[in-house]
Design a protein that fits this description.
Elements (H helix, E strand, L loop, with lengths): L1 E4 H11 L15 E6 L3 E6 L3 E7 L7 E6 H10 L3 E5 L5 E6 L2 E6 L17 E8 H12 L13 E5 L2 E5 L3 E6 L8 E5 H11 L8 E7 L2 E6 L2 E6 L20 E4 H12 L8 E7 L2 E8 L3 E8 L1 E2 L4 E6 H9 L5 E5 L7 E3 L2 E3 L8 H10 L24 E4 L10 E4 L3
Antiparallel strand pairs: 1-6, 2-3, 2-5, 3-4, 4-16, 6-7, 7-8, 9-14, 10-11, 10-13, 11-12, 12-25, 14-15, 15-16, 17-21, 17-23, 18-19, 18-22, 19-20, 23-24, 24-25, 26-27
Helix pairs in contact: 1-2, 3-4
Length: 414
């Protein structure tokens, strides 16, 4: 029998819940939380790829152990009030009692069937110390860049590689320097396991405690005091990102993040679900963003940038570039464009180009538009920008949508 505060019990159960499997599995017992009162309260949950354990230094009057359905235990602890008493008066039952009453939860008949924990993760290779908030803020943005579908085995991972964390889904690539990762470490952490670990660490984020990350040959161990997380690493090779990183030649183009986002949204309206390509031409402080759609027409806008005056031309998936901009926290972004066939570097994020969608005649057409009297599109004034265009030079061509904003314009024949 063991007594503790209901809120303390709820926080402990909440921290191990991410370890439970989310889909039906071949081992029904792991749908339960293993509860043990052997001198102290221990809660454990696993899906056989990750183990999350929470220990509370509360003395129990009598030893007990049980396997209780995780969601049921979470609901009971959340709705309990005051002091809670846990005990197992009979086999297959967990007795939960608070000031308002008591409940007997049907538990797994034989808790000894629960998988032996912790599982082996090999020999220690290296370790590091980092604050939990820094760990979460470093890993969480990179999870969005991995292939979370699980269809591509090694791309469904975060690659901890010699002081750097890398993530890619085959189209986008992101990396960040992490000084707390030893230079000798190379580990592949599965997407699902890291996502569960971060969700568990969020429960102890308050106070920003320091955690110890032990890197083993077959897994990692995250020690956060009362909370312990073990993750099995994936064995295999990860793509060498140095082969796709563009060579930094010349100065990057510095864009205002808000202006570039609005321009991409504007031109992106003319793309289709089959082809999300937009073309970008940068030259002499002006960047032209254009989309040619055989069904809808074309859309084009220009924005200013600072930096390299050299001419660059590239085709890119508008969704991938928008995702890269969305993850940037600064007001300005540095975009490195070297050639139409090379990857594009957006700060510390890499976006692969659409090589087959770029043709020399497209570049020439966009360069010619500089010589005309076409005004710059203002995304905030979608319907009145044509007012400044001399009527004798331009006409408006309506498209099937019947919308000025979704239409296209062209220069009148002489």
């Amino acid at each position: 029998m063991l007594r503790l505060d209901s809120n303390m019990l709820y926080q402990a159960v909440k921290s191990v819940m991410p370890g439970l499997p989310t889909r039906r599995n071949f081992l029904p017992i792991i749908d339960n939380i293993f509860v043990s009162g052997n001198g102290k309260l221990e809660l454990s949950a696993t899906n056989l790829e990750i183990v999350i354990e929470r220990t509370l230094n509360i003395q129990s009057e009598q030893d007990f152990m049980a396997c209780v359905p995780g969601k049921t235990l979470e609901r009971l602890s959340k709705n309990a009030s005051g002091e809670v008493t846990l005990s197992t008066p009979e086999t297959g039952k967990l007795h939960v009692e608070d000031a308002r009453g008591s409940q007997d939860v049907s538990a797994w008949a034989d808790s000894t069937d629960f998988p032996s924990l912790p599982f082996a993760i090999g020999s220690l290779v290296g370790y590091s110390q980092v604050h939990v908030k820094e760990f979460i803020d470093t890993c969480k943005p990179l999870l969005e860049k991995t292939d979370g579908s699980g269809e591509r085995f090694n791309l469904d991972c975060l690659n901890f590689n010699k002081g750097r964390i890398e993530a890619t889904d085959g189209h986008r690539l992101a990396f960040t320097e992490a000084s707390w990762i030893p230079e000798t470490i190379k580990s592949l952490i599965p997407y699902d396991s890291m996502k569960r670990a971060l969700k568990s660490l969020e429960t102890i984020k308050k106070g920003n405690p320091e955690i110890i990350v032990d890197f083993h040959s077959e897994g990692i161990l995250i020690n956060a005091g009362e909370l312990t997380i073990r993750i099995k690493t994936r064995q295999g090779d990860y793509p060498d990102i140095n082969k796709v990183l563009p060579q930094k030649t010349g100065d990057p183009c510095i864009f205002d993040k808000t202006e570039l986002t609005k321009a991409l949204k504007l031109v992106g309206l003319m793309t289709s679900t089959r082809n999300r390509c937009v073309k970008m031409l940068v030259e002499n402080g002006k960047a032209t963003v254009r989309c040619d759609n055989p069904d809808l027409g074309h859309g084009q806008t220009r924005i200013s940038y600072s930096g390299s005056p050299e001419m660059r031309f590239v085709g890119i998936n508008v969704d991938y570039l928008m995702d890269a901009l969305k993850s940037q926290t600064s007001e300005h972004v540095a975009i490195q464009i070297t050639a139409s066939t090379d990857a594009i570097l957006v700060n510390d994020e890499v976006v692969m180009p659409m090589r087959d969608a770029v043709k020399p005649e497209d570049r020439d057409r966009m360069r010619e538009s500089y010589k005309s009297e076409i005004p710059e599109l203002d995304p905030d004034h979608k319907h009145d920008w044509l007012a400044d265009v001399p009527e004798q030079f331009y006409e408006w061509k309506w498209n099937r949508r019947g919308s000025m904003f979704a239409g296209t314009w062209r220069r009148k024949a002489a």
